[in-house]
UniProtKB/TrEMBL annotation:
It comes from the Bacteria. PANTHER family: PAC DOMAIN-CONTAINING PROTEIN, PHYTOCHROME-LIKE PROTEIN CPH1. This is histidine kinase. Its EC number is 2.7.13.3. Keywords: Kinase, Phosphoprotein, Transferase. Residues 406-621 form the Histidine kinase domain. The lineage of its organism: Bacteria, Pseudomonadati, Bacteroidota, Cytophagia, Cytophagales. InterPro entries: HATPase_C_sf (IPR036890), HATPase_dom (IPR003594), His_kinase_dom (IPR005467), HisK_dim/P_dom (IPR003661), HisK_dim/P_sf (IPR036097), PAC (IPR001610), PAS (IPR000014), PAS-assoc_C (IPR000700). The keyword Phosphoprotein applies. It catalyses: ATP + protein L-histidine = ADP + protein N-phospho-L-histidine. SMART domains: HATPase_c, PAC, PAS.
């Protein structure tokens, strides 16, 4: 049994703070070591509590006084008091304070019993728990906001497959009321062809404790079934089995239809490629062939596996393999189009000419090559045959030109002999014939016409040989003045005037010999076919009706001509408009031919007795 004298000793060793406060001044009668630790200093007996050196908040003293006056006990839970420590300085510690009035006659309080229990760790744990609860609610609110704003439908099911939660998107999508029984209505909204499979797969995943991922059709609010992707993951709490699965539904209807359309399009393209009688193939960005069409197998007699990614090189004629492979490597490295004419071996061992072409196309999947080999063997052989015929015709044409030029040159000497004999005969002989003068005139004219014809034949051959003269930038005024200088005798005799206007198009890229020949024929004809009643006036000007399409206009006031009413070229060789005027009728034919050989054409407008206008379109559109 504990003796009363032992009570102070016991109270001093209690871990809780104990003190007696006497009178209304709350003088300290007794304080154990735990209370002194709480106050942070030794307690002076019989001194008011406020006079103690420790931190006693005024509000605590006021409450103590009220308890003393009222005589009613009071308990303050987790009351915070600052405490000074050597390690952490001043810290806040929490105590459960019990204030019990003490009275001697059970009527009037004579003091207070203070009992303080340190609950700092419990209070800090409670505060941490409270903070964690607040953070949990905040994260839960954020999670709900996130799950309810994303376009996916989110849900939670338990181990039995019952829905614990579904986001509002499900109600928007299905059009069901929020009062609907999810567990009863959800399976009914799955397409009948998918329902059994979905129920089986979800139950299997829950039984195995694993997640799932599958696609099915879910009925939308408008009655249309849309493809969705369902994914779920278990909430693991080791070591037991999962009790919840969290998942999401993502609508993939448009992507699935696009994939199906792409699959159908690819199948149709492959069918089309297999139907084309050409060797069609595709290659990766590295230049490795990954597809051959059916015609390739039919032509080569080899399957796609036998050809392999580079087997096409072995099909090319050995003499051309190195060049073809080098060109392909260059195109793959640079991305430039690939093109070449090579001989490819057929299944019977025969080589046929093919045009190989490949182009690179890049999309979101990266660059790819698309190529074709077109059989050009018949065209190639036909081209060779045509080239042979062309060479033969060109050789014949050159021989004919040489013959005409030689003949015209060789006939000049007999012509000179005839003219000399005729002059001698006319000088030494006389005839008693009244028609002597007309006959001599006719012979003179015949010899002149023969001479002109021989000169025109020689000029025709020369012009034919000059059709391929190289083009160069030419100043029109300079060339025109050179031509007029050569015609100065005819200009002086006829009293002709010329008006040159090349401001619109002062330059022309053309063959110099061709341009001189054209201007010489046009200007000499304007002088030759002048009207007898007026001096010649010739206008020569350039125009530019369209960019890059210059023209030349030569207009005279001469005799004019009757234009032929026929299709095709206006001028034919040896065709003459004015037989009374000397000429062979080949000048305008040569002009027409030179202009056409350079890609242009000649237009003529003429009125008999008034004049003629020649318009040369140098280049046709």
């Amino acid at each position: 049994m504990l003796e009363p004298t032992h009570l102070p000793h016991v109270l001093r060793r209690l871990p809780a703070g104990v003190a007696t406060l006497l009178g209304p001044e709350l003088r300290v009668g007794f304080a154990n070591g735990a209370l002194e630790t709480l106050l942070g200093a030794p307690v002076a007996p019989n001194q008011p509590l406020l006079a103690q050196p420790g931190p006693v908040p005024p509000d605590l003293v006021e409450v103590m006084q009220q308890v003393y006056r009222s005589g009613r006990p009071f308990v303050a839970r987790a009351y915070g008091l600052p405490s000074s420590t050597a390690d952490a300085g001043t810290v806040l510690r929490y105590y459960d304070l019990t204030l019990e009035p003490v009275s001697e006659d059970d009527q009037t309080a004579s003091g207070l019993l203070l009992f303080a229990v340190d609950v700092t760790e419990q209070e800090q744990a409670r505060q941490r728990a409270h903070e964690l609860a607040i953070e949990t609610r905040r994260l839960d609110t954020r999670l709900r906001v996130l799950t309810e704003t994303v376009p996916q439908i989110t849900f939670t099911v338990d181990a039995a497959g019952h829905f614990e939660y579904v986001s509002p998107q499900w109600y928007y999508f299905t059009g069901q009321p929020v009062t609907a029984d999810l567990n009863a209505i959800w399976p009914l909204l799955i397409h009948p062809d998918d329902r059994l499979r979905v129920l089986y797969q979800s139950e299997t995943a829950r039984t195995a404790g694993t997640g799932w991922s599958y696609e099915y059709r879910l009925r939308r609010h408008d009655g249309q079934y849309r493809w969705v992707l369902s994914r779920g993951l278990p909430e693991l709490h080791a070591p037991g089995q999962p009790v919840f699965w969290h998942g999401a539904l993502t609508e993939i209807h448009d992507q699935r239809e696009l994939t199906e359309a792409l699959r159908r399009g690819e199948a149709e393209l492959r069918f089309l490629a297999d139907s084309i009688p050409e060797l069609i193939w595709t290659a990766t960005a590295q230049g490795l062939i990954d597809y051959y069409n059916q015609h390739t197998a039919d032509y080569t007699g080899l399957s796609a596996e036998e050809l392999g990614p580079t087997g096409w090189v072995a099909l090319i004629h050995p003499d051309e393999q190195v060049g073809a492979a080098r060109g392909w490597v260059h195109s793959v490295a640079t991305g430039q189009p690939y093109e070449g004419l090579y001989r490819l071996r057929r299944h019977d061992g025969r080589y046929r000419w093919h045009l190989l072409r490949a182009r690179q196309r890049a999309d979101e999947r990266g660059p790819r090559w698309f190529g074709a080999c077109t059989d050009m063997d018949d065209q190639h052989r036909l081209r060779d045959a045509l080239q042979t015929q062309y060479d033969e015709l060109a050789r014949t044409n050159r021989d004919l030109d040489t013959f005409v030029y030689t003949a015209s040159h060789d006939l000049k000497q007999p012509l000179l002999n005839l003219r000399g004999l005729f002059d001698e005969l006319r000088r030494t002989a006389s005839f008693a014939d009244p028609d002597e003068a007309p006959i001599l005139t006719m012979v003179e004219d015949a010899l002149g016409q023969l001479d002109d014809t021989l000169q025109e034949l020689a000029a025709t051959v020369q012009e034919q040989r000059g059709l391929s003269a190289p083009a160069e930038p030419l100043d029109l005024r300079t060339v025109a003045e050179e031509v007029l200088l050569g015609l100065r005798t005819q200009v002086q005799e006829s009293g002709a005037t010329f008006e040159l206007d090349f401001a619109a198009a002062p330059e022309l890229t053309y063959g110099r010999a061709n341009l001189r020949s054209i201007l010489h024929n046009l200007l000499s004809n304007a002088l030759k076919f002048a009207h007898p009643d007026r001096p010649p006036h010739i206008l020569v000007r350039s125009t530019l009706p369209a960019p890059g399409r210059p023209t030349l206009v030569v207009q005279d006031n001469g005799l004019g001509m009757v234009l032929p009413d026929r299709a095709g070229p206006l001028f034919q060789p040896f065709e003459r408009q004015h037989p009374a005027i000397a000429g062979a009728g080949v000048g305008m034919y040569l002009v027409q031919r030179v202009v056409a050989s350079r890609g242009g054409h000649l237009e003529v407008a003429s009125t008999v007795g008034e004049g003629t206008t020649f318009t040369i379109h140098w280049f046709d559109t």
